Amino acid sequence: MAQDSNVVIDHGKSQWSDLWKKEDYLAIWLGFIIIAVCILAYTSFGPKDEFAAKIQAANEIQAAEAAKAPFKTIAWYKAQDDKGKLRGSSTPFGKFAAHWTKKPGAWTSNPLDALMQSEEQAKAKNEKAMPKYEEAKGKAEAALTAAVAAEEAAAGAMFKDTALNEDASAKIKAWRDANKAAGDAKKKTENKAFNLIPSLIGLCVFLALAFGVGIAMMGKNMMEFVQGFTMVFLVAVLAYVLGGQAISKQYGFGAEAWGVVLGMLIANTVGTPKWVLPSCQVEFFIKTGLVLLGAEVLFNKIVAIGIPGIFVAWVVTPIVIVVTYAFGQTILKMPSRTLNIVISADMSVCGTSAAIATAAACRAKKEELTLSIGLSLVFTAIMMIAMPAFIKAVGMPEVLGGAWMGGTIDSTGAVAAAGAFLGQKAMYVAATIKMIQNVMIGVTAFCVALYWVTKVEATETGHTVGAGEIWHRFPKFVLGFIAASIMFSILDQGMGKDLGDAVMEHGIVRGGTRLLRDWFFALSFAAIGLSTNFRELAKYFKGGKPVILYVCGQSFNLALTLAMAYVMFYVVFPEITAKI
Amino acid sequence: MNPQSLPVRLRNFVLALGMALAFVYLFLPMLTNSVGVLHRMSLYLADNGIDPTRYYYTDVEQVKEGENYLYEVLKQR
Fold this sequence. Notes:
The structure holds 2 protein chains of 2 kinds.
Chain A: H1 18-21, H2 23-42, H3 48-68, H4 74-84, H5 92-100, E1 116-117, H6 119-156, H7 162-187, E2 194-195, H8 197-217, H9 222-243, H10 246-250, H11 255-268, H12 282-294, H13 306-330, H14 337-348, H15 352-361, H16 366-394, H17 398-408, H18 412-422, H19 424-438, H20 440-461, H21 467-473, H22 477-495, H23 497-530, H24 534-541, H25 545-572, H26 574-579
Antiparallel strand pairs in A: 1-2
Chain B: H1 6-34, H2 36-48, H3 61-74
Helix pairs in contact in B: 1-2
């Protein structure tokens, strides 16, 4: 069946052979093979039982301490730290996976620092960071001594003297802050020598074969794919290097943006070589990456900050998507419905990841995805700097400011950066609201896919779509994405918070699926750039409607999120705000 | 088919790439160094290991810290 290469998804008449021949199903297979390997490595063949025993022991200490004192004691926190040290990613499999999927790192003045570091360089960095660490360590030790003395005094009074209890609690909090600062400073003294070239070559071969097999199963030429893949991979690596520079990162100009920019510069100046084009499998990379992203969409996260968080992230966001889309269609008369919905989702949910998922779900064109992400990057950089400055200037409370920024700034990293500028509480609230909102991308992708096959495409073709036809047209990878999300939500819930953190988040996800998901998206951005024509892109920008849509939608988002955050955190649930 | 000759296309590539690199690696650092708030932000982000380019919550360490903090303070004792 002929495919439109400019479209982010394909579809056709369903047959059993689709299961091993169609891109959507192959993306699900590849994604789930990776997920299955990671689950087995960190559970059945991994440290799950050992972690569970250690967590149980720590929980017993914490329960005893909680029964003893009316505040969290030093022993309680030490048991908490012991639980925090349990990470699946520190197992041999975790180290193996991290080594072979390592991305080029951060650098300041020499781009080669992103790819390799000698023993001397590592030693010099460690020595430079050591005085700060020694100072932080000294402060943490002093704070611990003071906390121990205060806790002993409180214990001496059988924890019945309120003043002593409050003093101990305050000193323990001061020790925790100093301890965290010392931990952060210590990380900067642990630089090691590395050379990423061999592992990057190994990863390139692995990815070429993994996707190459899928390409062969689709009936395409595997050798042609493998040959051009080297170039796509190289652009992705260069994008990681360029996006790793400190100032570039500060403005949100990371590997994704550089992948598209570098690819487009090549495609529109020297021209993408013909032998590279068969490897620009944007759809295959994106769909597989999205199936893996499903493992990170955990529905149980939405209660992290209680009902106020759900209202700010899960009530405002769908309203903003629908209103922005309707505004684009009825007022602005956007010629492309797909561009309209991708910008709406990108702006209201969580930027790049929502744009990718929505674009794939509604079959948006590559240029539309590029344009949406470009808009998001520009406005994110502006909002990340302007919002904390405005919030500080008007004297808005930290929790309200954090909730406002968490619900409106697109990318999670930028939300954390903007929140940190306001203060620690603001950062915690902002980052948590954003996390809850991130979880919405699964629901958004599913609803958009369903709406597109039942309404939009039916309107365009002028006839009603039956259940069978809906199934034929439905982008199946979305089901893989949702299935992964539901499966991981159940697993995470079943394990409980501590074991879930150690095995799921710091094992299966951070030590497995996420490592490859990052690369799959990096490859897709490089491939998008290499196959994008500037003239095509300019057509979508005509009249500036995408910018108007983004600005109007974001203004509505800002107003509604602020109003909802105020009502929820200061009118309906002030007791939650008081605890934060 | 691109009608331009290879040297012209190569020149265009070098010019376009040079402009992109100059914008990000010359103009933006200059802007950062000349505007106080941007400079402070740059130092703060570097000190605290915050990466604004990360788009999903599992990529950002501070999200976990926030989640743990809120879990502790909101948990009923």
